[in-house]
Amino acid sequence: MAVGPGTLPTFFPVAGVRLGIGSAGIKKPGKKDLVVIELAPGSRVAGIFTRNQFCAAPVHVTRSHLASDAPRYLLINTGNANAGTGEQGLLDATHSCSALATSRGVDINAILPFSTGVIGEFMPMDKLMAGLPKAVGNLSEQGWEEAAQGILTTDTRPKGNSRQYGDDHQVTITGISKGSGMIKPNMATMLAFVATDALIDNELLHRALTIATEVSFNRITVDSDTSTNDSVVLVATGASNVVIDEVSFDTFVDQLSQVFTDLAQAIIRDGEGASKFVSVVVEGALNKAEALNTAYTIAESPLVKTALSASDPNWGRILAAVGRSNIVDLDVNLVQIFLNNVLIAEYGSRADTYSEEAGQEAMQSEDIEIRVSLSRGDYNETVWTSDLTQEYVRINAEYRT
After folding, report:
1. Annotated catalytic residue 189
2. What's the pTM?
């Protein structure tokens, strides 16, 4: 199940980036489950990683390598998260880096490993090592679409976005992401790899990544679970020679944020078992924290999400979620709640103009907006989520089989 067509874009190659895909059979024989991304010398890399304190071995290794060297290769496997694997997991992640470094003639610190899949199982290193030469042998600037396939786990479809901007001198931004379940900001069981040919220094690159992530990957939730392996990586090769400085920074970040938002929303549209794409909009909050907390309380409510799945306009569940959002001194008589553009509640009860038929029609849509006006201030925030279906339960009940 997935919401919307999910058509991949035309991927614009990023000069200085090559991608190779291999089949290691880590979980399923013949599955494309190994991706190598090669970066031109001099490329800059920034990353944001999970805040889960049981973060996976490759996250530990990648953080360490990012701090000590100029990355040249990203090594990504699916089917095994290499999380909850203790010292052996760290040894395995390091060994995989060493093998790739040796084959490519670079320092081990130039390799950044990433893993996604089942937690608590040791990496089948023999399979990973056997699949590595094929992935390296397939390196190509045209490899984005295959790489989008190669990083999937329970996803039903690949996710990517690519754009170019500028008149005389163009900047390219291309990216892929994966994620379907265990999705909650800060971040979730998701990986995203975005590259640009812009020429930008490390400070601005990290700032751009932080801003773009905050308005995209940190605004999504499928099931409010935060994974052990979350990683968002932004690469800048500088090959276009278009300099991003303080003057051009805002334009670059706007373009980057559009790519990030598309990748984040694609994860929600492919949420495990999802049949609805839901935007939860909170308007008129006193501050950002109040707006976000209210939006997430609604978006993560199992009762709201199951009502969405059943196309049941049970507006009382939304009302209750707003009421338990810990809003200090909320005047419930000022709150308005909308389903799409249908006013369903105001003055603390059902709106006089509301009809069950109108609510039912709104809930039949694949794309639904729940909009709450608090009428307390000037802060607005949007969170994206999906419904909670029987298919979600089935997928996760059978995940390890």
Report:
1. yes
2. 0.92
